[in-house]
Design brief:
Elements lengths: L2 H8 L3 E8 L5 H16 L4 E8 L8 H10 L25 E5 L9 H8 L9 H8 L1 H10 L7 E5 H6 L1 H11 L4 E5 L9 E3 L2 H14 L2 E6 L4 E9 L4 E10 L6 H5 L4 E4 L6 H17 L4 E10 L4 E8 L9 H8 L4 H15 L1
Parallel strand pairs: 1-2, 1-3
Antiparallel strand pairs: 4-7, 5-6, 5-7, 8-9, 8-11, 9-10, 11-12
């Protein structure tokens, strides 16, 4: 018996805990995503939605305060924040039948919150602890993708201590292995924060100093001339891949400013790829999802090197942006699943997995 049929038989609404905000740099994006999801769920009598806002310091707020945040579409003012509060969960947590975490970045999308929800013994939307943690850590992700035979750009992984012991040796190794330009990234961070494109040794050393200030583990990737395409995945054991979307931009690379400044990037759906390339992207997206033990949803990002016809996997995003204008829901809308139905499907998948 499915979760949907059980719910229809009992006639009682499913109490959905909408969890948003969080401690990452994507706090504000999370609020916008949660507002869109709350609006979609509010039209269905099957659900009773209780929002839970997480302040930037990790404090959970009650549904009443959280609803105010959703209504305003922005985080609380400094005067409205709870301060010096020990970690506690609002009493309304006990009423929740299913959690819908809408959290992006570290301390939200990296498996920490998923572990907490698992301890509550309630179903939750999206990926579990393993997929979430692997999806957030670029070094672990790339190692797993490599083991699965998924083609990637060349990269070098190292930590802050290794770099400090032999900066010249590592610089020479990176130059010999990757060349310039290359990209320096913190291993465990989202939203393109701390990422630098470098063209010489001086820039390389400055970029590594910057990246290691965010995370002691970093990754350096070879620069490629490629089109950036994305594919949405939906499902559990038998995931489906959406149509392919493409991101175009005029800046040097798809950095934080380009990603979150209106007008600096365009989303093209569907991407004008040859059929065999689109099919390869879809197949690789599903394989990547299954390789990390994905469940519910993910967006998988690729480089298409048009000069050689090569498709390279870039990363998997285990809870992508979910505003009405975000790539993930727009890809599924084009593929025949409108936003409201997409939210329903994710809830059903969570019940199915439980």
């Amino acid at each position: 018996m499915t979760g949907r049929s059980m719910d229809m038989e009992t006639k009682s609404p499913l109490c959905i805990g909408l969890l948003f905000g969080g401690q990452s740099g994507e706090h504000d994006v999370s609020i916008i995503s949660a507002k869109a999801i709350a609006s979609a769920l509010s039209h269905n009598p099957r659900y009773q939605v209780k929002p839970f806002y997480i302040q930037r310091d990790g404090t959970w707020r009650s549904p009443d305060v959280s609803q105010q945040v959703l209504d305003n579409g922005k985080g609380l003012e400094e005067s409205e924040l709870l301060t010096n509060a020990a970690f506690f969960l609002p009493t309304e947590v006990q009423q929740i039948d299913l959690w819908f975490p809408v959290l992006h970045g570290p301390n939200g999308e990296d498996g920490t919150v998923q572990g907490l929800l698992q301890l509550m013994h309630k179903p939750y939307v999206g990926n579990g602890v393993l997929a979430s943690s692997v999806g957030m850590d670029k070094i672990a992700m790339k190692a797993i993708f490599a083991n699965a035979g998924l083609p990637q750009v060349k990269y070098v992984a190292l930590n802050r201590w290794q770099w400090q012991q032999d900066q010249q040796g590592w610089s020479e190794h990176i130059e010999a292995t990757l060349g310039y330009p290359c990209f320096v990234k913190p291993s465990n961070l989202g939203s393109s924060v701390g990422i630098s494109k470098v063209r010489d040794r001086k820039q390389l050393q400055e970029a590594i100093a910057s990246a290691t200030s965010y995370d002691p583990r970093i990754i350096i990737e070879q620069g490629v001339t490629a089109r950036e395409v994305e594919c949405a995945v939906l499902g559990n054991e038998q995931p489906q891949a959406s149509a392919i979307g493409e991101i175009t931009f005029t800046s040097d690379f798809y950095d934080y400013e380009t990603k979150y400044t209106a007008g600096m990037a365009d989303l093209i759906i569907p991407s004008q790829l040859p059929d065999h390339v689109a099919q390869a992207v879809q197949s690789m997206a599903v394989k990547a999802f299954q390789t990390v033990a994905g469940s519910g949803l993910a967006r998988v990002d690729f480089f298409y090197v048009e000069a050689t016809g090569t498709v390279l996997i870039n990363e998997i995003n285990t809870f992508p942006g979910f505003t009405s204008l975000s790539m993930y829901p727009k890809l599924w809308e084009y593929s025949g699943i409108p936003f409201t139905e997409l939210c329903d499907r994710l809830i059903d998948l969570a019940l199915e997995r439980k």
